Amino acid sequence: MAYRVSLKEFEGPLDLLLTLIGRAKIDIKDIFVSEITEQYLSYMDGLDELDMDSASEFLAMAATLLEIKSRAMLPRPQPAAEGEETPEEELIRRLEEYRAIKEACTRMKALEETARELLTKLPEEYPLPPQTYELTGLSLEGLAQAFRNVLERVARDEERPGVERRIRRDDFSVAACAYRILKRLRRGPVAFFDLFPPRATRSEVISVFLALLELVRLGRASVYQQQLFSDIVIMPALGGASGPDETDAVGAVTS
């Protein structure tokens, strides 16, 4: 049970008494510190175990009470300048800070009690196998140059006179192109330029190329060039293109 002051003028917690004094609800001259001290010593004698936190709290409160009592007995100083904190305002501020800290301690103790009932599992490490990118005999610059060649071919087709042009809504995506490449690789290696359908639009060429890069990155396909300026060949990676599933391809590329 927490210590409570029991006086003629007041009964309740000591911090509330200080607050009321600071707000001039109770006259400090009517409060006897010696009586409060005697009550607290009797309270401590009745405890089975000494609570050092409570004792420290009481000492701080009693010291504050003595300070207030001393100020009341001494001549009052000149009125505080504008913006300067008066002794009463300082006391109220300190009491409010104390109360806020006390409430925070109570909440933290409740959280500690709750945490004791929780069991946590330390994270485990699952090392991933190193990513390998299969560009056998081919540099990234060579692959980029091949892509530029395809784009130039598309540009030439678009500029050719007499070619019928139709504006159509694109019905392909990178994931769909990846599925198409995997399906084609089931029949064996395929030349790089054969991946792009005739009269492919610029956006379709870009989607196919991005799909190829993703499949290489994910280890589903490999790119090979036997020698400089020879055809670039796309081959299925070991176990990477067998039994392709559209859902699997879409999930792999978009994840």
From TrEMBL:
<keyword id="KW-0132">Cell division</keyword>
<keyword id="KW-0131">Cell cycle</keyword>
<keyword id="KW-0159">Chromosome partition</keyword>
<keyword id="KW-0963">Cytoplasm</keyword>
<dbReference type="InterPro" id="IPR023093">
    <property type="entry name" value="ScpA-like_C"/>
</dbReference>
<dbReference type="GO" id="GO:0051301">
    <property type="term" value="P:cell division"/>
</dbReference>
<comment type="subunit">
    <text>Component of a cohesin-like complex composed of ScpA, ScpB and the Smc homodimer, in which ScpA and ScpB bind to the head domain of Smc. The presence of the three proteins is required for the association of the complex with DNA.</text>
</comment>
<comment type="similarity">
    <text>Belongs to the ScpA family.</text>
</comment>
<dbReference type="GO" id="GO:0006260">
    <property type="term" value="P:DNA replication"/>
</dbReference>
<comment type="function">
    <text>Participates in chromosomal partition during cell division. May act via the formation of a condensin-like complex containing Smc and ScpB that pull DNA away from mid-cell into both cell halves.</text>
</comment>
<protein>
    <recommendedName>
        <fullName>Segregation and condensation protein A</fullName>
    </recommendedName>
</protein>
<dbReference type="GO" id="GO:0007059">
    <property type="term" value="P:chromosome segregation"/>
</dbReference>
<dbReference type="GO" id="GO:0005737">
    <property type="term" value="C:cytoplasm"/>
</dbReference>
<dbReference type="Pfam" id="PF02616">
    <property type="entry name" value="SMC_ScpA"/>
</dbReference>
<dbReference type="InterPro" id="IPR003768">
    <property type="entry name" value="ScpA"/>
</dbReference>
